[in-house]
Amino acid sequence: MKSLSLSPSTRRIAAALSICCGIGVVTSSQQALAATTPEARQTIEPSTSVRSGSGSPVFVSQQETLPTLPSSLSQPVSPALRPASDAGNIVPPGVAPTTAIGWENEYVLGPGDEIRIDVFGAPEYGGDFVLLPDGTVSLPVTGQIALGGLTLPGASEAIAQRYMPYLRSPQVALVPTTLRPLQIGVVGAVGRPGTYTVPIRNNGAVTFPRLTDALRLAGGISSRADIRQIEVYRPDRFGQAQVLQVNLWNLLKDGNMSSDIVLRSGDTVAIPVAEVIDPAEAAQLGDANFSPEEVTVFVVGEVGRPGPVQVSPNTPLNQVLLAVGGFDAQRADRDVVGLIRLNPDGSVERREVAVNLSDGINEETNPLLREDDVLIVARSGLATFSDTVGLAVNPVGRLLGTFFSIFNFLD
């Protein structure tokens, strides 16, 4: 076998190319080594066997030093822009997970949001964008992508997936440059049902409203609210509503803050009306900070200032009577007061309460009043008799008065 004589510099370059590019090159000294006997090979300077990418062995003498590889060959492949056609059979690794803490997991992107997208290693693929009315943005190369209805981590993951054919392990950071106020709806047994706009940025701090914040905005829960079966309707990006069941009673009973969930833009809170109200629970609800600060109670009859009166929740009957000026000293029946209450099922309850102004709070003589309760203070027996006699005598008095007026005129 005729050997090919190569210069030392050529052998170095050949060895380098065989390592980087998988080209099997055998030098003349290695061919000579292969032609010797096993005994003779033991006396020759040992060599290092290097397996090339194609599987062919390449022997490099330990007495020779390999040249330093060019940076384009010695460095790993950059994760910069790489079309799918250049990736060959290499399966790109999964997208690096995007983590977010605090409000980033709650903010939902929507039309008009201004966002900044940063793609690690490929700044030309990022930039500042504004979500169009349909919730989309137009990315470089990949075109439009729908981000409306996604949280910030969800949008980052969606963008990274879109760049997978062009980037290896794309890492995307998405930051909103402006934050829209939240639109939240509250319906059911609250003081002022409706839609509310809630700003989330205050003095540079970002704070999302919780369920109890929305209840306070809506005027607080009514005395007939069932806070054990609250429903929060949360729309997804496709318009389908996810229903969250919330038992807010756990917050009052055990201090369980997980019941006071964080709300997102587009949420609608529905407070049902309780079928049965326990007086003890009603009193505890009245003391909650998501109850209204004042309730309206109506007082009619023989009191100083009859009419509606604003009082704090869980105000007892005796205190309401004092708030309207107390009993009329000459006409009021001070023994019994009528109480009319509208029940959650629509029925009306009427009862007689034996009033004792010296009693403390109790259900028999001094009950706690609820919103829209009506107190009726009747006339005393003497006042009733006097009014009856007055009605009977009054026509005769008017007739006599008319007669004397005519007599005086003729005179």
First CA to last CA: what distance? Answer: 168 Å
Number of DSSP strands? Answer: 19
Count every helix, treating DSSP H or I runs of 4 or more residues as helices: 10
Q: Main sheet: which strands, in order across? A: 9-8-14-12-13
- Compute the CA-based radius of gyration: 43 Å
- The CATH architecture classification of the largest domain is Roll
Run of helices and strands: HHHEEHEEEEHEEEEEHEEHEHEEHEEEH
Spans of at least 5 consecutive residues whose pLDDT stays below 50 are 13-101
What is the count of distinct domains?
4
Structural class: alpha+beta
CATH topology annotation of the largest domain: Outer membrane lipoprotein wza fold like
The CATH homology group name of the largest domain: Outer membrane lipoprotein wza domain like
Average of per-residue pLDDT values: 74
Description:
The chain has 411 residues and is of the alpha+beta class. The protein has four domains: 65 residues, no CATH class; 74 residues, wza like fold; 105 residues, Outer membrane lipoprotein wza domain like (Outer membrane lipoprotein wza fold like, Roll); 85 residues, Outer membrane lipoprotein wza domain like (Outer membrane lipoprotein wza fold like), CATH 3.10.560. It contains ten helices and 19 strands. The strands form six sheets. A five-stranded mixed sheet has the order 9-8-14-12-13, covered by helices on one side. Strands 16-15-19-17-18 form a five-stranded mixed sheet, covered by helices on one side. Strand 15 and strand 16 form a beta hairpin. It is rod-shaped, with a radius of gyration of 43 Å. The relative contact order is 0.07. About 22% of the residues have low confidence.
